[in-house]
Specification:
The protein is α/β, with parallel strands linked by helices. The radius of gyration is 19 Å and the shape is globular. The protein has helices at 13-17, 63-77, 93-102, 147-153, 180-190, 206-213, 225-237, 248-251, 255-277; strands at residues 6-10, 25-30, 42-45, 48-51, 78-88, 106-114, 131-138, 162-164, 196-199, 217-222. 34% of the residues lie in helices and 21% in strands. The longest helix is centred in the last third of the chain and has 23 residues, at 255-277. The chain has a single domain, classed as Vaccinia Virus protein VP39 (Rossmann fold), CATH 3.40.50. The protein is built from nine helices and ten strands.
Length: 281
């Protein structure tokens, strides 16, 4: 079986993406800055209103131009049958949607991630935000999507684009850390074992940790030195011993799902063995 590689780099994702060969990445997950930090933005800390300050990485002069630059580079490195998954809220996902259309990408789905346990809202002039949107797009209509795994995860029924996955207590200090269970589902549906996953905004390293567990190669970029160190340590601490490791939450769903996932893992092992012993032409 091929040894799984992880490569995390510190720096600006647009510059680092230019070093990645065209068409070399099978799946991209991106959770870009929402540009919500600064004196004019408010958040809640310890039950009180406070200025939102996630860091300099969340302060961008021209967010739409920034989005267009990094999305273009991501599409260049994406394989012909690969998919890009971009998470966001109402503050940024309209910009992403316009760019995907402008670049003539095939928009596959808009997944609504519903957080039933989302934090309450202190202000009384709007509805409490409980969702995020995840764009899924590809270069062509011929893309990889694991329909059968999606169906099995959903109890044998066709999976819909409304995903109810609870928000989880953060494992690190990163303010926008995504649940591992969300990334597990995304990676299982959009890639195969041995594929390469890229995350241009690696944050605390969640995508890298889950990709490693699921036996996918990983490339990640992070602009913050502090979060880069956190992500690097977190990914390096993940020991998989060259075998797929599914979350307990997933495995507890049903025995049938367990058998299905085990069978897929065995099929991959068999294919790797066949490729290894296949005579040279």
């Amino acid at each position: 079986m091929t040894n799984i590689t992880t490569k995390l780099q510190l720096g600006n994702c647009i510059e680092l993406l230019r070093e990645v060969p065209s068409g070399s990445v099978n799946q991209i997950f991106a959770d870009p800055p929402y540009n919500l930090s600064g004196a004019t933005f408010q958040t809640v800390k310890s039950g009180k209103m406070a200025t939102c300050d996630k860091g300099n990485w969340d302060i961008i002069d021209d967010i739409h131009r920034f989005n267009e630059e990094w999305v273009k580079e991501c599409i260049r490195v994406l394989a012909a049958d690969g998919t890009i998954w971009i998470s966001g809220t109402l503050h940024n996902h309209p910009s992403i949607g316009v760019i995907l259309k402008k670049l003539n990408l095939w928009i596959i789905n808009d997944v609504i991630w519903f957080k039933r346990n989302a934090a309450p809202l202190l202000s009384k002039n709007r509805l409490a935000p409980s969702t995020e949107l995840i764009w899924i797009a590809s270069k062509t209509k011929k893309y990889y999507f694991d329909y059968e795994t999606a169906k099995m995860i959903n109890g044998g029924k066709q999976m819909r684009n409304l995903w109810e996955i609870n928000a989880e207590r953060h494992k690190t200090s990163h303010p926008t850390e995504k649940p591992e269970s969300l990334l597990e589902r995304i990676i299982l549906l959009g890639s195969k074992q041995g594929d390469t996953i890229l995350d241009p905004f690696a944050g605390s390293g969640t995508t890298g940790v889950v990709a490693k567990r699921l036996q996918r190669h990983f490339i990640g970029f992070e602009i913050s030195p502090d979060y880069f160190k956190i992500a690097l340590n977190r990914i390096n601490d993940e020991k998989t011993e060259n075998k797929v490791v599914y979350s307990e939450k997933l495995l507890k769903q049903s025995e049938q799902l367990n058998l299905f996932l085990e069978e897929k893992a065995n099929e991959y092992k068999a294919k790797c063995f066949e490729d290894k012993v296949k005579p040279e032409p």
